[in-house]
Structure formats: structure tokens, C-alpha cells
Amino acid sequence: MHNSNVQELNRRLIQCCANSLSQEQEFSTPEVISYLMGWGDQYISHHFEMIYWNAVVSLLKKTYPQLCKHQSHVLQHTSEGETANVSDCHPQTEYAVLEIYEENFNYLEYFLNTYDVHVTPEDIDTVLKRNDCHLYLAYKEGTSHTGHICIVRHDNHDVIPHIPGQWFPHADNLECHPFYCASMLALLTPWRDIIQLKKADESFISAFKHFMVNASPSSRDIVNNIQYFHECSDKAKERESVSQTTYHEPVNSH
Asked: 93, 97, 118, 148: least buried by Cβ within 10 Å?
């Protein structure tokens, strides 16, 4: 009984201290306005769109088992050329079931430049007007996205990608270079079936080289920016190695 009283007194003491500190806290004008308007407790200049790239990695490895040759995580495979369903990997499957292809979005552009909305035939006009929609894409009938539409964002939007999980492969790693090429093709070329990334008698390395010859400046920038992570990591490891070597060198007594 005595212990419970002591715990209650300690709890009240901590609560009183917290209340006293909060009374002294000053709020800026933007914080007060955001609170009064119900805009949340933070402001960010851009919207981050989650892209679960592991779904595409799983799809690549299921369709092309040889890509798993130098990967530590081995998946249950299908034979080469057999199409594995994206929905087996992740529920974020809208890209593979788009009905209209005029926009020719690649995988990255789809998630950055569009967003999904559930509509009914009766309220589609209201939804389009409310979202200030100038263009939308339809999904294939009979899929899990029946009753949804894909609204195309306006130009100069503020959406940037956030890709959780393991980063893309190193371009200069010869062992996983085919997997790197396949990943870049899946990210930056339009497809509705993963076997469309390359011709049947073509390698991923050859297909990626051909893609880069005609790639747009923005696609080239994306490839370079993806590689920049590995360049920074390589430099950091190099500096660490030099530092350790210097630390362990014997000191000349002379």
C-alpha cells in the first residue's frame, strides 16, 4: 500500500513539472495559426509518396530466377518468361492494371504524377470537379481496382518519392549488374507485363544500354542520382579504411 502511494506521488510530481514547463513554452505565430486552423503540428514543403519497390524486386526474381543468382534473399521462383502477378508481391498493383496507356507513364512517373480515387458512376463528375481533374486514367474491368480512377496531377506538383527498404543495386558491381539493369528498366520504362522490359533473345545489360542511348535527360539524372548513394558510401568506406590503416601503423621512435 505504501509503495502505491509513493508511485502516485511521483506520478503527480512529474505531471506538475511537465505542466510547469509547458506553461513557459513559447509558440511562434505559424504554430498558433496551424493549431487553430487544424493543419497539424508540422509543415513540409513536399508530399512524400511511398513506393514499395520490394514488390517489383519480387516480381523480377519470380519471372527471371537467374537474377537471384547473386542475391542473398532467394524467393520461390517461376520459370523464365512466365509472368508472375504483381498482386502476389504487394497490394500496390494499380500500375499493372491501367486500361489507358496514352500517357505512357513509367513505374516511377505513375506514382509521382497520379493518385488513386474511388468513385461511383453517379458521383464521378463531382469527384473530378472537387479534385480539379484535367485528365484521368481508367483501370481494367474485373480487377481489384474496379470502381477506382487514376487522376493525373497537374504539372509542377510537389510530390517526391520515398522508397523504403534496401536501396537499388550498385551499378559498378559486376556480380549484380544484370539485376541492376533490370531494376532500372523496371523503374524507368513503361510496362504492363514485366516480360516487356526486354526482348526474349536480349539480355538485361543490352536492353539497358539501348535504353540509355535514347533516355531523356530526366531519366539520366535519376540513374545518376541513384548511383550517387553508392559513390558516397564507397568514399566513406575508403576514408574509414585509410583511417584504420593510419591508426594501426607503428610509430617510428626516431
From this structure: 118
